[in-house]
Amino acid sequence: MSNKSNPTVATMGIDIGKNSFHVIGLDQRGAIMLRQKWSRRQIEARLANIPPSLIGMEACVGAHHLSRKLQSHGHDARLMPAKYVRPYSKGQKNDFRDAEAIAEAVQRPTMKYVATKTAGQLDLQALHRVRERLVRQRTGIINQIRAFLLERGVAVRQGLRFLRTELPGILATRSDALSSRMMHVIEDLAGDWRRLDERIEGLSTDIKGLADQELACERLMTVPGIGPIISSAMVAAIGNGAVFSKGRDFGRLARTGSQADLDRRPHDPRQDIETGQSLPARPVRPGSLGRAGEAEVLGSLRAQTLDRSGQAAAASQRAGDRSRQQAGPHRLGGSQQGAQLRMRQDT
Questions:
Q1: Which has the closest alpha carbon to 329: 319, 342, 316, 314?
Q2: Where are the domains of the chain?
Q3: In this structure, which CATH number among 3.30.470.20, 3.30.420.40, 3.40.50.720, 3.40.1350.10 belongs to the domain 11-105?
Q4: Which residues of the chain have pLDDT under 70?
Q5: Which of 12, 218, 262, 345 is the most exposed place for a label (fewest CB within 10 A)?
Q6: What angle do CA 40, 43, 47 make, to 5 degrees?
């Protein structure tokens, strides 16, 4: 096995790390011709000196940037969801075997790939991530204010706007329910709330400006109920939608509200693949089932019904057997005729 770059390499698999990259190169027959570990400074220069080839990578942090660089050098760089690569891994897990599994998976004709995001898509995606984080922080502050007030016997109607309206009056009343220390704590939280509102409003304005300049966002906003936030998040996630072969695939993404089947590593239910794209739009049909899910549920219900009916029939049969045994003579005793019959059989 050679550790030097070989011009016969046709397919490459790259396992991406923070500072190092493990590279496996295969020839036309699938034999390993290259097995090296490159640093981040080396990889672009070395791949620029290799003839154009098919290069596979898992879609993760930094994969889109590297994919654009490799495509500029003439390589056919393709990104794949990590969960689709995992079945091709053999033996004990290590970085070189992961790279080999990537090189094997990228050659499959039925493999589902992730579209390489442009720099504009990543910028728009970053705005959405920051805005989503700020919204979560604001929600946490609002819930904390409500909890502190409720512990002092002050209940506010559910809803952000009701608390925003009533909180200044509660703080200005200076009632005995709230001590001076608690008043100071709630005032500080209200100040944090105002600052988060300003930042969220500024990010929303930036997103709206970008959405107005994007033709795809304008087309999406013609659909009732879709505004600049949802439309720009969709464009940042899927681009022109070429990654989907049919509308049903996109419907699954819209229903789950995450890009679990596209380009994230499994981490948690909302982030299944590393790039961490999230659609701020809530699921279109929360808790809904597709045709396959409905068929599975109906099948399980039908099986449970048949199982219950079979159990009932077996129980009734056992009850009938017991009643017949009780009605007839006992096997060891029995009537005189039964004893004579058994004597004839013995003789």
A1: 342
A2: 11-105, 119-241, 243-302
A3: 3.30.420.40
A4: 1-7, 174, 253-347
A5: 345
A6: 165
